[in-house]
Design a protein that fits this description.
The protein is of the alpha/beta class. Helices cover 42% and strands 19% of the residues. The protein is built from seven helices and nine strands. It has helices at residues 25-35, 66-74, 93-100, 112-118, 135-145, 150-167, 182-204, and strands at residues 15-18, 40-42, 46-47, 62-63, 78-84, 87-92, 105-109, 126-131, 175-178. It is globular and about 50 Å long. The chain binds adenosine-5'-triphosphate and the ligand Nc1nc2c(ncn2[C@@H]2O[C@H](COP(=O)(O)O)[C@@H](O)[C@H]2O)c(=O)[nH]1.
């Protein structure tokens, strides 16, 4: 495998959002991008999982086959990649560079393995953990989303327990936000990012 260092571009500090599947990461990040158009840009990951109804190729993810994705990984095209619940996911160097070239704050929505691997790179993002109020509520949200088979749901809940343990490790995350009431969690997220948001707004005004 080729080395996976990224060319760091000068500009706003990227933000990594992680947390158990179903906790509400996409919901929060979509709100952020809607309110702050021209400030944030989403790093569009690659995945081998099939698109869900309503998801669009090149917007939610780049949907690829395992062969294509593995070839990209072997070629050193990815900053990080991970197997999650039976599928491959990964952040390409191009996805991050695409956002950074526009001087936007690059938002990454990645799992715990991605967090660990990004820490080994020179990307230097802020790490934010989004957490559920309880495992019962997490399960309710994941079931309510109606996107997972029972098998996938159980796998995701098992992984969630490991992710919650990891988040307790000292220094794993810079900020921890409990997503209980959505508006409160969103306000906390905005507060954590205020400094970076103000910097980008100042440059672009
Ligand atoms: N604070 C909240 N209260 C109630 N429901 C919520 C809250 N936040 C998100 N949800 C709902 O929970 C479900 C899961 O949210 P979402 O898809 O954003 O999770 P996710 O963390 O991005 O999951 P994944 O990692 O699997 O992509 C969605 O149906 C969403 O509408
Ligand atoms: N390590 C990475 N994890 C990623 C990436 N893109 C998404 N994810 C994580 O996968 C799970 C499942 O996502 P879903 O869309 O199938 O529900 C979730 O925890 C995401 O954060 C990535 O590029 N690298």
């Amino acid at each position: 495998m080729r080395e996976t260092t990224t060319k760091v571009m000068a500009g706003p500090r990227p933000v990594v959002c992680s947390g158990p599947s179903g906790v509400g990461k996409s919901t929060l990040l979509k709100k952020l991008m809607k309110e702050y158009e021209g400030v944030f840009g989403f790093s569009i990951s690659h995945t081998t999982r099939k698109p869900r109804p309503g998801e669009q190729n090149g917007i939610d993810y780049h949907y690829v086959t395992r062969d294509v994705m593995q070839a990209g990984i072997d070629n050193g095209d990815f900053i990080e990649s991970a197997e999650f619940s039976g599928n491959l996911y990964g952040t390409s160097k191009a996805a991050v560079q695409e956002v950074q070239s526009k001087n936007l704050i690059c938002l990454l929505d990645i799992d715990m393995q991605g967090v660990k691997n990004i820490k080994k790179t020179d990307l230097n993002p802020m790490f934010i953990s989004i957490q559920p109020p309880s495992m019962e509520i997490l399960e309710k949200r994941l079931r309510g989303r109606k996107t997972e088979s029972e098998e996938s749901l159980q796998k995701r809940l098992q992984t969630a327990k490991i992710e919650m343990e990891f988040s307790k490790e000292p220094g794993a995350f810079d900020v921890i936000i409990i997503n209980d009431n959505l508006d409160d969690a969103y306000a906390k997220l905005k507060d954590a990012l205020k400094e970076e948001i103000d910097k980008v707004k100042k440059v672009s005004s």
